[in-house]
Amino acid sequence: MRPILMKGHERPLTFLRYNRDGDLLFSCAKDHTPTVWYADNGDRLGTYRGHNGAVWTCDVSRDSARLITGSADQTAKLWEVSTGKELFSFRFDAPARSVEFAIGDALAVVTTDNFMDHVPTVQVKHIAEDIDDQTEDSALVITGIKGRINRAVWGPLNRTIITAGEDATIRIWDSETGKLLKESDKESGHQKTITSLSKSLDWSHFVTGSLDKSAKLWDTRTLTLIKTYVTERPVNAVDISPTHDTVVLGGGQDAMNVTMTDRRAGKFEAKFYHKILQEEIGGVKGHFGPINALAFNPDGRSFSSGGEDGYVRLHHFDSEYFSIKM
Amino acid sequence: MAAVVATQQQQRKYQWGELADDDGASDLGLVLLLPPRVVVGPDAGGLRTVIEYRFDDEGNKVKVVTTTRTCSLLARARLSRSAVERRSWAKFGDAVKGDDAGSRLTMVSTEEVLLERPRARGKRAEEPCTSDDPLDMASTRSGILMVCRTCGKKGDHWTSKCPYKDLSPQTQGPVDVPSTADGLAAPLGTGVRAYVPPNKKEGTDTSGASMMKRRNDENSIRVNNLSEDTSEFDLFELFSKFGPVNRAFVAKDRRTGSSRGFGFVNFVHREDGERAISKLNGYGYDNLILRVEWSEKKN
Description:
A: Methylamine Dehydrogenase, Chain H; 4-stranded antiparallel β-sheet; globular; B: alpha+beta
């Protein structure tokens, strides 16, 4: 395959997200300007100007009308996808690290970092249908987690919120009451910071990537560990193929150590693992910095990766990929 | 893309009367005479046929059939109605700044990137099983036969699981590596043998032979201003008086075969060469005065 290289960002990539139809790709980077691309040919459609800090994550509503972004400028912003217009800005006391729309797009979960003397929080915001009714009030605030929360996502039917972060523990919270329901096992779970979390298509299971050089597959309801994928590098990004039994891991050496070693030693590849057999299927090279973001197209035919090098690489799989037998 | 152009000339020439006097009008008139352009397909196989008619320089009517294989990604992708609508959205934000900037941002990699498999499909190179006996296999697995070809570690991991495999030199696809230890180029059944240059072949004493060769080159003497009749044997006879000579060579023109007037002599011992130079430089040989010197080292 010949990847499409998109050099729209001047700083390292932080997050990639496809919309539900898989025709748009949203990219976030540390350069303050989230960007949207056409996912088939990599044409830049537009940028969302207004943030004043690194943008950590984004999410797009099911109808691809609205985008929510979380940034280090201590805001989360709502945008109109088609025009790049800023609709609303939620202000926080600390950088917003993770955002996600709930099913129905009436709620959004936002996490804030531990910053100055603020503790990290998970906050649920109502998203008004009419933007004039939008308020900044939080429907729920969850505190009590030590260490930064890197990802917070909704569980099935919006009943739970799953968080993962620096303390290497995955927690499931009740999204109504904010009660802690489950906690991942310390022994079998990750040993270092969890950097990424990605749900399967039906949300029945999810995969987490960690700096302990492994990725783990968990059951969403029971939080039981199903599979472990061991690799030789810290994992910064993970995703699950929506159509095949494939998990992709991306990562590499810490950015501050990169220049000290051979490029190949950095292991800046996107590694594909068989979801069930936990065996490595193959690797896709190309980035010359660690991979910070990975996303499968919802049609399963392409995936994109974003690296510390500022490039987004969009890969359309060869037919060979679809016929791999393990 | 495969384009096949078939031309079929139609014999009938146009009479002058059919052509209008004015050039511009004649072009227009001729175009009107032609049958319209027909486009067929693309069919299921992606073949598109275009049939066109035109006049060549001599005024002959030519039928041009162009068959094109189209392979478009968009044709396969199922786009939802809203996605099609999003296609027509106007660019916004920084993307507005003209299409030129946008096209520079997005480019297709010139490099073909493959999904690199940790091992070739259907091939288990890391398991040198000689028998089908599972017990035997188990013993070889646990024994020191498990040697990593990348880092050379014994009994720790297979080559495919080597933590240093990314650092090893790249191999293009599955390569049949000849086992150098026992001299057999490739195990039976693998078919293709990798080419081994003669000096790398098993049995050539690389250290000794190449050293010897270099030393001999150092003792090479160039003889200029030889007469055309001087043969290699004459040269040998002349120089062998000073000591053992292991090569005498006269440069010859490749086409005519006649001497080009210079030659080389290699002595076994450097001292002999020195003596030969001091004696024969300026020596009259066959009406000519020889010029003898150490030959320049080849780069």
